[in-house]
Amino acid sequence: MRLNLFLKLFLAILATSILLIVAMGGAIRWSFDRGFVDYRLEREQQRIESLASFLLDEYAQQGNWSFIEGRSRWWRALQATSNEMPGHGNPRGHGQGGMPFIALVDPNDKFIAGSLSRKTSGWIRHELVQDGTTIGALLYNPPPSIELFDSAAEQRFEQQQLQATWSIAGLSVLLAALVSYLLARLLLEPIQRMARATRQVAAGDYSVRIPTHSQDELGQLAQDFNAMAHSLAATEKLRLALVADISHELRTPLAILQGEIEALLDGLRQPTPETLQSLKQEVVQLNQLINDLHMLSLADSGALEFDLQPNTSLRAILQRCYDAYQPRLEAKGLTLNIDVPELPPLQGDSTRLNQLFSNVLENSLRYTHAPGDVHIQAEQQADGLHVFIDDSAPGVASEHLPHLCERLYRVDPSRSRALGGSGLGLALCERIAQAHHGTIQAQHSPLGGVRIHVMLPLRQPS
User: Fold this and answer.
1) Would you give the DSSP letter of residue 459?
2) For labeling, which of 22, 50, 336, 425 is most exposed (least CB within 10 Å)?
């Protein structure tokens, strides 16, 4: 039979409680028996002392042991002292004929009265001293443990204690079962809530949250689950938005291609070099979008390779970018300026960094209105090397700046799709900066456009 977690926990708590009850019951029973043994031994000692006091008083009056003659006198002496002790009015089982294991001897150990044999082992000697002189001794054996409950009253008391012990144990087991049931329910309730919430998340419901009422391990687990569900919800939202954006990005050039080709097939347009160039441009834009998506997917999965070299010159990288884009910017009516002093080498991948700054300059080339300016500057600060690429108008509203590095994010109309961008360049730049343990931010430019601020540490964390 397969036991569920509730039953396992219930049985574990109940078994532990029963073991504790049995152990405590045994300990209490042992303590009671041990205490009763001590009580009987102490009572036996008191009876011997009472008998000794009686014999000394009689000896003081008579001057010798002649007052004890025969069995009857000795029995009356025992009765005179035993009647003071409850349960000893009729001592039994201690010796032959009902006589207890007590004997009286003179100072020379000569037997005077009693039933204790000299062959009896384990006897105890109680000296009888009068006026500093030993006049005799009492020899006795304590009763065996099996004879502790020798009277009917003591046996009834023992039975009552045994019945009370079993009754208390039974009630304790029932109480333990009730407490075990409640504890199992209480401990499993948060786990069951998590199980239900996990099934909902597995079914695609990422809005489920687990209420937290404690700061223990289960409370921390609930908080971690809520954080995971929030992350999954954000990821799912991003995935749906990404699919929609990519579909839209692909649909536009494909629609243009389809329309141009159908026009050519229907004879509405002639296959002139201008028409073919338009088709080629749409294909190039599609290819760029697919390549950027591929690189982003590699960066997100950690599969994009970086060759970090310890003596990478940031000044040389920026100079190469300047040399590559200066003619293109000038042809559009834009002036490109560079202000990069000598900088210490950093640990980085020159190819990927060149790609980062090329993407930024490509955006400035596409979106800056002519006549305009683009400015590259770099400086060293305490936390690393800082690069600032500024362009002139048009600018971007403040609410759009934090989102410029998000994939497929556009600001219309100045950052429109018609200018040929894929909307993935700055997102790829952010992945490259993060791979170098750096940062990239979009800010307002003092030239009136957008400033891209890149920070790169000189040394990578070990």
Assistant:
1) S
2) 22
